[in-house]
């Protein structure tokens, strides 16, 4: 199990080092697709995100009852649904759960919502996670979906409570 988790992180990070700015690239694409309104999922699919699509998710809010209903989940990000965090009461929380936890914060703010977090894996290692969620609307006005992206790296030489993500 420990080796499988390390393999997900490529020995260093949940996303390659070049993807540390993934959240900003997603927000830039979101803003280009918006053109003064909330972009639709269809408009986002027209954006050229290249390899970044591996770290993107989209949630249908109408179908999200009690937990996110993913209509798109990038291949690399999907693997994190099996990477569980340590917890005092809930040992079922995964890294994917944490990345998608802010979907309603994006809806409430009607714009991108960023998260920088230090997470502890079930094996005790720490991961610095950066994620972003942003609202989507089929008609440009009424929010129907949320797009998000997440990346991170293993924490080394980081004091508890600090999350210096580049």
The SSE string, one letter per element, is HHHEEHHHEEE
In the CATH scheme, the class would be Alpha Beta
Give the distance, in angstroms, between the N- and C-terminal Cα atoms. Answer: 28 Å
Biggest sheet statistics:
5 strands, antiparallel
**What is the CATH topology?**
Beta-Lactamase
- Would you identify the regions where 5 or more consecutive residues have pLDDT less than 50? 1-6, 8-19, 161-166
Estimate what percentage of residues fall within beta strands. Answer: 15-25%
Q: Could you characterize the architecture of this molecule?
A:
This protein has a single domain (2-154), classed as Beta-Lactamase, CATH 3.30.450. The longest helix has 13 residues, at 22-34. The protein starts with a helix and ends in a 12-residue tail after the last strand. The protein has a five-stranded antiparallel beta sheet with strand order 2-1-5-4-3, with helices on both faces. It has helices at 2-8, 22-34, 41-45, 75-78, 95-100, 103-109; strands at 56-60, 70-73, 113-120, 126-137, 143-154. The protein is of the alpha+beta class. It contains six helices and five strands. A hairpin with a 5-residue loop joins strand 3 (113-120) and strand 4 (126-137).
Quick gist of this model?
The protein has 166 residues and is an alpha+beta fold. The chain has helices at 2-8, 22-34, 41-45, 75-78, 95-100, 103-109; strands at 56-60, 70-73, 113-120, 126-137, 143-154. The protein has a five-stranded antiparallel beta sheet, with helices on both faces.
């Amino acid at each position: 199990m420990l080796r499988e988790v390390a393999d997900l992180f490529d020995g260093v990070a949940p996303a390659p080092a070049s993807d540390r700015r993934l959240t900003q690239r997603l927000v830039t694409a979101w803003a280009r697709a918006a053109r003064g309104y909330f972009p639709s999922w269809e408009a986002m699919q027209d954006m050229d995100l290249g390899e970044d699509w591996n770290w993107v998710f989209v949630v249908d809010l109408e179908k999200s009852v009690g937990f996110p209903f993913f209509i798109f989940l990038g291949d690399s990000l999907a693997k994190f649904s099996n990477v569980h965090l340590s917890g005092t009461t809930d040992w079922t929380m995964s890294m994917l759960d944490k990345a998608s936890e802010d979907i309603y914060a994006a809806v409430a703010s009607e714009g991108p919502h960023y998260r920088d977090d230090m997470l502890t894996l079930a094996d005790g290692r720490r991961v610095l996670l950066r994620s972003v969620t942003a609202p989507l609307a089929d008609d440009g006005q009424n929010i129907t979906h949320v797009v998000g992206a997440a990346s991170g790296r293993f924490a080394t030489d980081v004091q508890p409570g600090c999350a210096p993500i580049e």
